[in-house]
Amino acid sequence: MKLLVDFLPVLLFFAAYQLWDIYVATAAAIVAGALQVAWAWLRHGRVEPMPLVTLAVLVLFGGATLLLHDERFIKWKPTLVNWLFAAGFLASHFVGRRPLIQRLLAANIELPPPVWRRLSWMWIAFFAAMGVINLFVAYRFSTDVWVDFKLFGMLGLTLVFVLVQGLYLARHIAPEQHEEGSR
Questions:
Q1: What is the pLDDT of residues 40-76, one digit of tens each?
Q2: Are 71 and 36 contacting, i.e. CB atoms less than 8 angstroms apart?
Q3: Is there a contact between 33 and 74 (Cβ–Cβ < 8 Å)?
Q4: Interval 114-154: pLDDT, tens
Q5: Cβ distance 131 to 80 under 8 Å?
Q6: To bridge 134 with a disulfide, which of 36, 52, 78, 115 should be the other Cys (CB 3.0-4.6 Å)?
Q7: Which of 76, 62, 78, 51 is nearest to 16 (CA)?
Q8: ∠ CA 85-90-95 to the nearest 5 degrees?
Q9: 3-class SS at 109?
Q10: What's this model's pTM, rounded to 2 decimal places?
């Protein structure tokens, strides 16, 4: 259910684009993003930073798309979100004692500090690359191709990256952790 809620704005954007146009899709994504944040607030009494950042960028760039009737702004939104995440992961190397990825996952996985740092750098590179790839697709291909890429391409690349991360982590997780995870 959480996965569906997390992808709701992207799915509604895609569906609305298929039925209408980029502007209706943008409005649908903004509404879905706001509902996603409201749902988290009502359900948990708090909202995690990722949906808040995503909604803020969506409202800013989606709003510009709607107000100026210019689809370039909504096409920049995934790049900005990815680059903000890259910047956040990078900043965590200089603020606090642990990289952000370690703060997020340390309760579930025990890894040596050098592995956490490498993992963090991999995520920084991934987010930075995803921003660049989005711009490449947005400016080199039609809006139809970009919308398909936004859903299927970005999701596919993320899944591949997560699988690669899983393989990388499997080499570094102690055997006791494997046994605990299988129980």
A1: 999 999 998 888 999 999 999 999 999 999 999 999 9
A2: no
A3: no
A4: 999 999 999 999 999 999 999 999 999 999 999 999 999 99
A5: yes
A6: 78
A7: 62
A8: 115
A9: coil
A10: 0.89
Rounded Cα distance, 110 and 21, in Å:
47
Tracing tokens 């009494």 back to the chain, one arrives at: 45
Give the Cβ contact number of residue 84 at 10 Å.
17
Beta carbons within 8 Å of 110's beta carbon, 6+ residues apart: 173, 174, 177
The CA distance from 20 to 31, in Å, is: 16
Query: Cα–Cα distances in Å, from 9 out to 29, 121, 156?
Result: 5, 28, 17
Choose among 44, 53, 7: nearest CA to 29.
7
d(CA 175, CA 170): 9
What is the rounded distance in angstroms from the CA atom of residue 39 to the CA atom of residue 19?
26
